[in-house]
Description:
By secondary structure, this protein is an alpha/beta fold. The chain is built from 11 helices and 22 strands.
Amino acid sequence: MASCAQHQLLSSSSSFRGRVGKTSSSSSSCSTSFSSRGGGRKATLKCFAGGGAISKPWDIQKPCKLVLEDGSVWQGKAFGADGTKVGEVVFNTSLSGYQEILTDPSYAGQFVLFTCPHIGNVGINPLDMESTKVHMGATLVRHEALNVSNYRSTQTLDSYLKEQGVIGISDIDTRAITVRLREKGSLNGVVTTDMSISDDELLKMSKGYDIVGKDLIGEVCVKEPYKWVDPTASEWEFAEKAKSNKDKFNVVCFDFGIKNNIMRRLASFGCDLTVVPANYSAEDVMKLNPDGILFSNGPGDPSAAPYAVENCKKLLGKVPVFGICMGHQVLGQAFGGKTFKMKFGHHGGNHPVRNEFTQAVEISAQNHNFAVDLNSLPKEVKVSHLNLNDGTCAGMVWEEKMAMTIQYHPEASPGPHDSDNCFAQFVDMIRANKGMAVSR
């Protein structure tokens, strides 16, 4: 029967007691009937909820749709929050760590489409956050896992996104959308749970959005300086250099959208961290007497943050500096170079980069839609790393200015640990500048 949930059980006695699961209505009812069959007894249990069938988890989700600026419309099911959001759609190829991706501030202004088909299966826990909130506008998945199985989980992905006010859409063809993004480049899109808005209206919204020229750093960075002291927890520490380190260094971190695990890794290598807003003046930074300075990851267009570039210029050559992702792009401009928007960017935990000094290849975690133009750099700047997928600049060194940068995430989170030694190299630059022996 289409209107009921029916279970058949074989029993050797006429006595039968069933327990019905939780239904969606207090007016649910169940009835049991028996018949003889093959020497045994067949019990048939029929349950009704409020005059209809018991609700199945996969039947209770609301409709949701994604409209891309190329005019394509993708019908799906909603989870998380209700509403309508616009953003740039990018795909991420990581097979794990969706919670870290959700809370990465670098995704502000964007929707993340996960190529991994099952998202939500390990739930959410309070220890794996990369910031205090979800920064992306929407989460796009093939399948939202309804069953959570992880000993650290404290809530479901659905409930977490509801708390955060972030829309999720599932049951869409993420492979087809990924192919579309690779062929056409990153596309703006609108996700909505409001089915009263026409596709034409949503298309107009998507075409009216552009991340180029947007300074999103100010939306995600802190407003006042603060101290960070927590290293990587001992049960997760894997780097021998970090375990054996006994020195302490004063490092100032410019917060362009910094991830927690960048700070944990620096703390593990002996850095006492002071985190400052993105627009904190170079003069005030030097008053903190830093041994080194970090320019962090962050969202948006690096050319839209000239104040950050000017700060970099004033600080170059005074103490060792290290730029990660947005910090790499900002330092690249301070060096005299230019940045450009990539076709669809790099987002995932499986990107190969080659160290141009050693020829060693690292598998890296990456998340960026802009890059530094190799041909725009002055001759004093050496390209230290190249992305082997497309030949773009993945790292720079200016030895005379005590500056190093990488266009990917050495802390991973999620991703491989091949590049974690970058933190040790930065600390060695600090040691060398202070006349101390390096750790190699």
